[in-house]
Amino acid sequence: MLILFTPEKAISQNRRAIKASTIENKIDASSSTYRISLLTCSAGEEIYAYFGHTAIRVENFSTKEDYVYNYGQFNMDQPHFIWHFTLGQTDYQMGKETFNHFARIYTYINRTVYAQVLNLNDTEAKTLVENLNNNYKPQNRNYIYNYFYDNCSTRPFFVIKNSIEGTLHFSKKYQPKSWREEINKYTSHASWGNFGMNLLLGAPTDKEMSEIEQLFLPINLEQTLQSSEVKSKDGNTKPLILQRCQIIQRDEERAVKDRKESTPPISVTTASILFLILTLLITFIDYKRKKISIWFDTTLYIIFGLIGFILIFMGLFSSHPCLNPNYEILLFNPLFLIGIGSLVRLSKPKREQRYISKSLLVSQTKLKGKIDQAIYLIISLCLIYFTITCILQLSLNMVTIQYFPPASLALALCLLVRLLFIKKWTRNNRQRQKSFFTER
User: Fold this and answer.
1) How far apart are CA 309 and CA 390, in angstroms?
2) Residue 23 and residue 392: Cα distance in Å, rounded?
3) Quick one: which H or E segment has residue 167?
4) I need a surface site. Which of 39, 53, 139, 392 has the fewest CB within 10 A?
5) What CA–CA distance (Å, rounded) separates 35 from 310?
6) pLDDT tens, 393-426?
7) Going edge to edge, which strands form the sheet with 65-73?
8) Residue 146 backbone phi and psi in degrees, to 5
9) Quick one: average pLDDT of 369-382?
10) Chain centroid to CA 394: how far?
11) CA angle, 427 then 428 then 433, to 5°
């Protein structure tokens, strides 16, 4: 469909891209039969394209074939795709297409593509092509995708590593970073997507990656291999990359326009601060009229409780890595769902009077009151600890148990304000009602 309906402007750009490729074809290859290149594609504006993409281009001089292999294909129309993706059981597929087709698509979606020509001899090049074709067999091309350990970047790396004769050495000095640091570096422009990723990823994401693990990102793979060397059995060394060149140039004006169109008018941090101001305003109004906006608190409890339930479900049943433990559960606490019962009782004054009068006489009602108090205490302690942790993180740039997005602090303050107000209102209301029953 992309090929058939590509606009004329994109077709013209594609012709320039293929022309650039023809110029690039003048580069000498180390193998007399093949020229094999690692292709690194720039990031896109879709959430699945934030980190770029990696593919392998194989040019056969004898047959004039020019194919691109990539491990990043998936079909959203496959049965139960969302459910399998949630559980970390998504089937990805290795794809094979002509370079002209690849160039047309990436020109159409406006992505820059760089090629790194691999420095391979005839035997290594042949082995690499055989490995790629073996992986492309119907029985081998599908695999369970894992966004950290087994993705479109790690698979090309290992197929290259396993095809060379000798030992691969990384010359670039590795600066240890955590998974989350790398993710935030590439998603900081998309505040809502960044917040969602940080919300789902738990404490293991803050651990430092090894030198191999950091290659899960296409840009990291490109930069690492650019200065890598291959040491043969006889002790000789050679650079892994023969030459790096750009084969597709994106339209920068269009890229800026696409970025503006895909960016929400308000960031998640700004939205959370505005929500905190709204919470303070509602609390002030409730204080003046000596009532509780039950609808507001019930909505908060349902939203935060359901998100907490989702976090627990993902941690227990999903195969995605680094989800558990997730200390966002201190903020998005499933106990909020149980606390809705307390709010319902508070919302009906007459029923509350009967409830309080019975609580002085009936042990069962006393038990309900103690359960309510226990839930309130647990939620309050979790929120206080969460708030202190967020403040330490923002003020000292120190991650204690887990990194929390700045927006989480504003949301925690919203809940704390409402919980403290409800506690104070309930205490005052009970004192008034006890006085009422005493007078009677």
Assistant:
1) 22
2) 55
3) strand 167-169
4) 139
5) 48
6) 999 888 889 999 999 999 999 999 999 888 887 7
7) 142-144, 91-98, 65-73, 53-60, 34-41, 113-118, 241-248
8) -135, 115
9) 85
10) 21
11) 100
Tokens representing 70 are: 């990539």
Joined tokens for residue 392:
């330490």
The angle that helices 335-346 and 363-396 make with each other, rounded to 10 degrees, is 120
Cα dihedral 204, 207, 210, 214 in deg (nearest 10): 80
Distances (CA, A) of 347 to 36, 148, 219, 287, 353: 70, 48, 55, 15, 11
Dihedral of the alpha carbons of 53, 313, 416, 291, in degrees to the nearest 10: 120
Half-sphere exposure (CA, 13 Å, Cβ side) for 93? Answer: 11
Structure tokens that stand for 426 in this block = 């309930």
pLDDT at 353 over 60: no
Map out the domains of the chain with their CATH numbers: 8-174+211-261 (3.90.1720), 266-439 (no CATH)
| 8 Å CB contact between 263 and 190 | yes
Q: Per this entry, what is the length of the chain? A: 440
As given in the structure block, the two tokens for residue 200 are 């789902």
**Among 52, 88, 94, CA closest to 72:** 94
How far is it, in rounded angstroms, from Cα 225 to Cα 172? 9
